[in-house]
Structure formats: C-alpha cells, structure tokens
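Holo prediction. Input below; ligand is S-adenosylmethionine.
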Amino acid sequence: MMDEKTIRKEVIKFWDATGDHYDEQPFHGVMSKEEETEWMSFFKNIIPPGSEKILEVGGGTGFVALRLASLGYHVKCSDISNGMIARAKRKAKEQGLEDLTEFYICDAQDTGEADNSFDVVINRQMMWMLPNPEKALADWIRVVKPGGKVIIIAGDGSKSDDDEDDKKETGKSSNMSGQKTGMMSKKDKMDEESNEAPQWFSDELLNSLPMVRGDKTPEEFMKRDDAVLEVITLDDIQEAEDKALEKMTGEKRKRSPRKVYILTKEK
Ligand SMILES: C[S@@+](CC[C@H](N)C(=O)[O-])C[C@H]1O[C@@H](n2cnc3c(N)ncnc32)[C@H](O)[C@@H]1O
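Structure of the complex:
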C-alpha cells in the first residue's frame, strides 16, 4: 500500500503529462454537439439560483468551471496538477472567461478555504482518486455555507466493460467501476503510450485508493450526519456520450451509470 504522499506524487505525475490532450479524449472532453447540449442543460439546472461563490476541486482542464463561467457564475477552480490547471487557464483566456474564473493549485482534501464561504463546492470524475475521501468531503462541507451544496459527479461503483478489460489484462478486477470509464479507456491507454506519457495507474496505486478498492459504496462514502444526501442519474448525458463514442470508433461500451451525489449542508 502506498502512503498518501506517494499517492499524491504518482497522481500528479500522471495528470501533469495528460493536461495537453485530456480534452480530446472521450468521456473527458466533449465529443459531440448533443453531449455539449446535455451537459449545459445539466449545469443550468444543478446550480441553485442566486449562487455567487462556487469552488471546484480537482477541476482539471476546466470542464466544469468554464461551462459554469459561460453561464455567468464566478468559479474558483483548483487542482493538484500544474499541467491540468495550465491548460484550464489557457482555455479561460481563449474563451474570454478570465474575469469569471480563478485557478490555483491545491489538494482537494485540504482546500484551505474559510469556513462557510461558498454556495457550492463541485467536482467531476475525481473523488475516486483521493487517498482519504472522507477527509475531503469533511473539508468541502466545512467550506460550504449552511444550506449550501456539495455536488459530486461520479460513477456509481458498479462494474463496467473497462473492468472486464482489466481482468483480461491483469488477471483481476480493479473494481474501480464507472469512475475509470469516465477516465480512460483501453484505447486511450494505448494512445497515451504512443505519446510516451505515463501509462495508467499501477495496480499498487489503484489498490491504495479506498473508493477503487470498494471499501464502501460511493453512497456510503458520501453519507454524513450534517448534510442531506440526494442522488440523481445522468442518463441523458451518458446516452449522448455513448452515441458519440460509437460514431467515432464503432465501439459500443457498457459503462456503469454516472451519478450526481448532492449533499445539502444543514442550516
Ligand atoms: C479525470 S480528471 C477530471 C478533471 C475535471 N474534473 C473534469 O471533469 O474534466 C481528475 C482530476 O483530478 C485531479 N486530482 C486528483 N487527485 C487530486 C487531489 N488530491 N486534489 C486535487 N485534485 C486532484 C487530477 O489532477 C485531475 O485533474
């Protein structure tokens, strides 16, 4: 088992080398107009009206932050990887969204933000990578205002075709479920190799991550006494993503359902 410091180092190494081509990968960036429409309609509906301060953790190349900024929200977007944040900053400039976005480097487990200071804390496809998800969640609840929301977009913890690929490759399942499908397919892994970027996370790293190990279900990881948990599915987005992948590659992949876990902090 890796300690937290080593996990952080390995995670940063991988994402630093990925930033420049992340957006071109299916399930990372958007591959079709339909996907874009579905994501924008999701973001329009998910942010409570009147939200003024939004914090994104593990924001990567700005997938969420830049879309929220295009809707007029001010977003503070953080990530642990310089490579990912550098790309997000370039995109903010290209899209004329610099005034509505702020980017900085920080560990999602310890944002260093003031108590009760944000209306919303949001993240997409990153929580499974945390060595201590409960610690991170406690921090996000701490910084959100009473009545504010922590919004987590993630897989549902069930198995997908990518897990089957892993089984064939390594003789065992990573049990990392839809989270990984949202991250990188086998084809993507091969593309990574040809670009001489680091390969996928090692088995040792994967086995050091509590959500990948499946110590508990994602819902069990999210449950807290000081917040109300609501879970919704992202069927329309997932359908649009699957269609786009099939059109691009002819590949029909069965992915585990993507979900949104919404925690409303008690007043
Ligand atoms: C799959 S990408 C998702 C990026 C972005 N949220 C999106 O939806 O496109 C995962 C991101 O989580 C970041 N990450 C991983 N561990 C982190 C940590 N402990 N603190 C902050 N960011 C982290 C990575 O650097 C990477 O940018």
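The longest helix spans residues 235-249. That is the main takeaway for now.
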